[in-house]
Amino acid sequence: MWRQAWRRIWGFRRRGRGGVFCEGRHQVKDLAKVELHLHLEGAAPPAFIRGLAKEKKVDIGGIFDEGGNYRFADFWEFLKVYEAATSVLTKPEDYARLTTAVLEESAASGVVYCETFLSPDFCGGRDVGAWREYLHAIREAADRAEAQDGITLRGIITCIRHFGPEKARQTVRCAVETAGDFIVGFGIAGDEKIGKPKDFVWSFDCAREAGLRLTAHAGEWGGPESVREALRDLKVERIGHGVRAIEDLALVDEIAEAGIVLEVCPGSNIALGLYDGWRKHPIGEFYKRGVKFTVSTDDPPFFHTTMAREYEMLNRAFDWDEGVFDGIARASLDAAFCDADTREKVLKRL
Ligand code: ADE
Ligand code: ZN
């Protein structure tokens, strides 16, 4: 029943095969978009990080290739490069500049609402006072971007799985202390092969009690069982990635029935070698099976992608037309963690 309702909301329509571009004035890349899965540090352009490293006289040259892009061979090397790049972001002012750069890029890609993962681990070492200063700087930059480019930002505080449950407890304190109209959610990222969701139950319970909405990375490097555990133990309403649920179709059906939203990042999965090309990505199957999903970039410069590119590649791979993408944007806004007034405001931009 839920699935039928969902199909109505999405206005599911499919074109015949072979349509690279949608009908009408626009190409799909020009449509208004809602992005719910973006790591702020992971969205830092390599030139921005190189510039900061130069200003601070820090040598992190080893993380770039000859072309100036981030260099990594697999997910675990990606995490190391990510943390090395982040090491040059040492002041609230750095985060303000980063937020401005990231939102300019997102707005240029047609994004009108964005939720970004924010990590007190990197912003003041999980100290609540320091975190407040970083957050203030990020918010000011976000307010300027909204006035200038019509893009709204909200934050999801994220603990990092491979840093362990004790650090997550400190992180959730930062989240609880700053929960409100800007910090709207709590989540977990990092190496899914380390630890278990049940180790983080205390932190997620605290976040929920503080009124924060919940999401967890799962089913990216862990299989369907990892998704089941995140749903059962952390009681999240959205799953970051979740793509490997496809290996257990009963789970896919449960996800669809329960209305759990998958924050799908196809370009990220393909760049990291999870799937061998766009047509092989399970997002097409999720769509057919009535699973709620959103489309995001995860860490766009690392994966040489943008929201505009994600839309274009999906359009080419699955022949999805403008109506499908419009449905995705509306469904994403529905799944956003912001308050009703913000949702209403953003809806007018779609
Ligand atoms: N942190 C940044 N990107 C991530 C990803 N794709 N998976 C897990 N943690 C991350
Ligand atoms: Zn992610």
Brief write-up:
With 350 residues, the protein is of the alpha/beta class. Helices cover 46% and strands 14% of the residues. The chain has helices spanning 2-10, 46-55, 75-86, 92-108, 128-149, 165-178, 201-209, 224-234, 249-258, 266-271, 283-288, 307-318, 322-335, 340-347, and strands at residues 33-39, 111-118, 152-160, 183-189, 213-218, 238-241, 261-264, 292-295.
Structure characteristics:
350 residues; alpha/beta; TIM Barrel; 8-stranded parallel β-sheet; 14 helices; globular; binds adenine; binds zinc ion
Description:
This protein has 350 residues and is of the alpha/beta class. It has a single domain, classed as TIM Barrel. It has 14 helices and 8 strands. Strands 1-2-3-4-5-6-7-8 form an 8-stranded parallel sheet. Helix 8 links the parallel strand 5 and strand 6. Helix 4 runs parallel beside helix 5 and helix 6 runs parallel beside helix 7. About 4% of the residues have low confidence. The site of zinc ion (ZN) has 6 residues, from strand 1. Belongs to the metallo-dependent hydrolases superfamily. Adenosine and AMP deaminases family. This is Adenosine deaminase. It comes from Paragemmobacter aquarius. Keywords: Hydrolase, Metal-binding, Zinc.
Write the layout of secondary structure elements.
Blueprint: H1 2-10, E1 33-39, H2 46-55, H3 75-86, H4 92-108, E2 111-118, H5 128-149, E3 152-160, H6 165-178, E4 183-189, H7 201-209, E5 213-218, H8 224-234, E6 238-241, H9 249-258, E7 261-264, H10 266-271, H11 283-288, E8 292-295, H12 307-318, H13 322-335, H14 340-347
Parallel strand pairs: 1-2, 2-3, 3-4, 4-5, 5-6, 6-7, 7-8
Helix pairs in contact: 4-5, 6-7
